[in-house]
Design brief:
The protein has 143 residues and is of the alpha+beta class. It has helices spanning 21-26, 80-85, 107-116, 119-138; strands spanning 2-7, 11-16, 32-36, 41-43, 51-57, 60-63, 69-72, 77-78, 93-96, 100-106. It is globular, with a radius of gyration of 15 Å.
């Protein structure tokens, strides 16, 4: 099953149901492409959680207040927990560990995307499952 999506300039992009979450996010007309140099904050703890992010290039490290670190690589989404389950603020901070390109989609557009593509939730759960399996295999709590 394919989902036609219009992207700026009238270009029609057809995404298959098997599209990755980052591809779905990037195909949204309202998504923004942002670049950050190494060491720059993508967002800080306490800021309003008003967007979800997907890594297109580079590595973004998400740091919890407890000091736990999780690295996100190209194709991975981050901050969705704060968008869906939080009190409206980022609980963690995100920092570019290399020069990065990220896609940003505002909260309401993301929730609409999730409504229109329910399998996106399965992709996000699978991403979390893979992280937990990797942690268990390596014997680490964070990486």
């Amino acid at each position: 099953m394919s989902h036609p999506i219009h992207r700026g300039g009238g270009l029609l992009v057809t995404l298959l149901a098997s599209s990755t979450p980052a591809e779905l996010l990037g195909a949204q007309i309202d998504s923004e492409m942002l670049t950050f140099p190494t060491g720059a904050p993508v967002f800080s703890a306490g800021e309003a959680a008003n967007a979800i992010y997907a890594v297109r290039r580079g590595i973004v490290e998400v740091l919890s207040p407890d000091g736990d670190k999780v690295c996100h690589r190209p194709g991975e989404l981050f901050s969705y927990q704060d968008i869906v389950w939080s009190d409206g603020h980022y609980r963690n901070q995100a920092v570019a560990r290399t020069p990065v390109e990220v896609l940003r989609l505002d909260r309401l557009r993301f929730l609409n995307l999730l409504h229109n593509h329910p399998t996106l939730a399965i992709h996000l759960i699978a991403q979390q499952h893979d992280r937990l399996r990797e942690q268990r295999t390596s014997g680490t709590c964070c990486y």
